[in-house]
Amino acid sequence: MQTTWPGYYLDGKTADKEPVRVELSINGLKLTLADGTAIYWSYQEIRQVAGFYGNDPVRFEKGSDIPEILIVEDHEFLIHLNEFTPQKAQRFHNPARRSARFRLTLLAAVAVAAITVFVYAWGIPFAASVITPYVPVAWEAGLGKSALNVLAPEDHRCRNPKLTAALQQMVLRLTEKEKIPYNISIYVTDTNIVNAVALPGGSIVVFRGLLEKTKSPDALAGVLAHEIQHITRRHATKRIIADSSTGLILSAVSGDVTGAVVYGAKIAHNLAMLSYSRKDEEEADREGMKMLLSVGIDPGGLIGFFESLQEKDAKNANVPRVLKYLATHPDTAERIAKMKAAAAASPRPSSPAFPRLEREWDRIKKGCKGK
User: Domain boundary residue among 93, 120, 144?
Assistant: First the structure.
């Protein structure tokens, strides 16, 4: 049995990712840095936040607010951890049990579809939470691609080269510290509403109205970080399954990509007004802020963006709501306060993350007009 593994350690104080040797013990993990410094994590104070499906790297966190992070890329680490200390490791995912859990999940979904209307009303949302972690990425991609063609048709997409390059630069910067099983792609559609939609499988649709409201590239990067968290944590997939028919659930648990494409076209319009749970929104906010801070992007741009939207929304209380980004993201004042608190507790970058884009941002963000 292997007891020593290579990994990466982030101390929660800086964005530096340090190589570390991880050694299994009965009561915890011993982390040894390159300079010989040893750090001991007891199993009781560790929480697992990633590595629950496929070959997704295992990610453990310790502490609150801006926690310490341990990343082990080899998924076999979890299997050996569970074998080494089965009682202590019960709180962590064990990939060896995945096949059995998947079959039980499928049987549970079929059973829920057969019970009474009353049980059906609460059974579907519960089943969605259970099923979602086991939905294949390929199925999500099929659903998202089909929905993308409805929300952002080819002839409505903005294809300005500078805008495309700027968005790609932001995605690369945001995802440079972690591996995710999705190919994140941004599509700007020439529609004058203030909204952005995270689609299952990795696509994000940004409407021109939202793009033009951003005062800096850092602000848009903050929006993208939030939407990326919705994708990687499968919030949209969970809500879609919960709000849809039994046929979609069976398509999800079976990995039927053809079925995903069919349902994607049917639910595309609902995605634009998808309202996440409070828990999902708070998670996307929290993890999005961590993503920004870990790669040195000032969260002040995102905070200022929300404040400007909130101010305009308040001034237009008697006008039909056009700020759909606020309509689908509740408790704006409370969220702004939490973002400010998280930003205040962390070191702030001394300069913009995208200096070249900063100088040209007023022109770049209007690149969708006059395609």
Answer: 93
